[in-house]
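Table 4 source record.
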Amino acid sequence: MTEEEAFFTLYGSLVRAGPGTPEEVDWAMSLLNPHPDGTICDAGCGPGADLPALLSHVPEGRVVGIEAHAPFVERMQAAFSDEPRITARVGDMADLGGSFDAIWCAGALYFLGVTEGLEAFKPSLAWGGGVAFSEPCWFTDNPSPAAEAFWGDYDGITTHKGLMDKVWAAGFDPIGDQPVSDAAWEAYYTPMERRIAELRDDAGPELSKVLDEAELEIARWRAAREETGYLLVVAVPR
């Protein structure tokens, strides 16, 4: 088993690719208030866990999930084959195309950078549209070594003020923000723990390494969750 195969043996079967709950979708969409017959884009949507919640905010419209990992797109196409108002396609977040009333990007904007990603999203927003995204954030000015260890090599993390500065630099105004809840993190990590337990006994060296790293990630978040996490930000272009 290769390292990539081991990674997707664990993560490829999970319902979620990151923290989240429908309640966070509802909060963000209540601020953006898309048209009932509008279109929402889920950029970097993973296996599509947020698509049903997003769809509920456009009761006469549709949702488009765009994801770079083709197996996730295949899963979505199978899962939502009976829902014509949900479309999933392989694509690049940096070039969404279309014209969207709202763009939702949960835990994926860091691939582009906050400022760069928002600038890339702007041409795809319909008039009056906006973006909701979650991004790593320090909740303290003096994060502990344990909190720093949680994010590993990611050096784009900053404080609330630093994150707002990145939003403003992209030509957007923040209209609301809140930390992604502990419940949202557990909605991701609890199923992961169950999957780790299922795989552990028969795991070879590569898979064991992936399982160990995942368990360490979970433990580090639970130790540092008061100091860091995702900040969910809603912003509209100036």
